[in-house]
Amino acid sequence: MLCRRAFYLALSGIVASCALTSVGVGAYEPGDLIVRAGVASVQPNEDSSPLVVDGSVVPGTGAGVDGDEQLGLTVTYMLTEHLGLGVLAATPFEHNIQASGLGVDAGSAKHLPPTITVQYFPMAAASALQPYIGLGINYTVFFQEDVASQLENAIGASGNLSLDDSFGIAGQAGVDWVLSPNWLLNASVWYLDIDTKATFKFADGTRVEADVDIDPWVYMVGVGYRF
Asked: What residues form DSSP beta bridges with 115?
């Protein structure tokens, strides 16, 4: 909630400042490459199936995922004055996983969410304010999955965790405030469709599974440079 509130405050500040800024600081043109960097916050909007232990559903349980902040990087290649091809990248996000209903930490994992969107810029190319929307695809890769000691103690055996990679749609909205022919400020938000299956395997043969829809909101505020 705090990350979402801070993002909207930053976005409102950019829009308000742009109202006082003259246009014509530099047109977005076909062939422009716009690179943006800043703080990216992933806030899961997760929904989980009940935990399945050795084939039996455990009512009232599930899997929860916390948020994380990392360095975000986006690149837009302008195809025309109004259309761009955007890529979202970041340093690896790390999330803790909780076993809801059991009251224990279940594990942790890192992921990378490379995302490609086709972006539409509705304003005139020379406008200092450049809002945009985008639609595309996301492929999320999970790695360095670890089982928490709390869950291992509850089961009574050591274990390992695997999370299936995910492929889904992605939506995006953002705004650039062009400060000069090269420099700009940016605020943007994504919604990513990320679905995975978590599988815990323990040395005593116990197997725990859950289907998790992570579906995070990703917020980013940063600076950009146009080449």
From this structure: 88, 138
Taking only the tens place, the pLDDT of each residue in 115-136 is 999 999 999 988 899 999 999 9
- The span from the CA of 57 to the CA of 159, in Å, is 20
Tokens representing residue 148 in the block: 């928490």
pTM for this entry: 0.81
Contact, 84 vs 31, CB < 8 A?
Answer: no
Residues 167-200: tens digit of each pLDDT? 999 999 999 999 998 999 999 999 999 999 999 9
List the one residue out of 225, 185, 222, 224 whose CA is nearest residue 72: 222
Buried b (16+ CB within 10 A) or exposed e, 30-50: eebebebbbbbbbbbebebbb
Instruction: Please give the angle made by the CA atoms of 183, 217 and 150, to the nearest 5 degrees.
Output: 125
Nearest one of 173, 188, 176, 174 to 224, comparing CA atoms:
176
Distance CA 224, CA 183 (A): 6
Tell me the residue type at 155.
I
- Residue 156 falls in which region: left (phi positive, over 0), alpha (psi -120 to 50) or beta: left
Residues with Cβ within 8 Å of 27's Cβ and at least 6 positions away in sequence, in order, are: 81, 125, 126
Task: Classify burial at 150, counting beta carbons within 10 Å of its beta carbon; exposed 0-12, middle 13-18, buried 19 or more.
Answer: middle
Ramachandran region of residue 206, left (φ > 0), alpha (ψ -120 to 50) or beta? beta
List the alpha helices (DSSP H) in 62-173.
Answer: 149-155
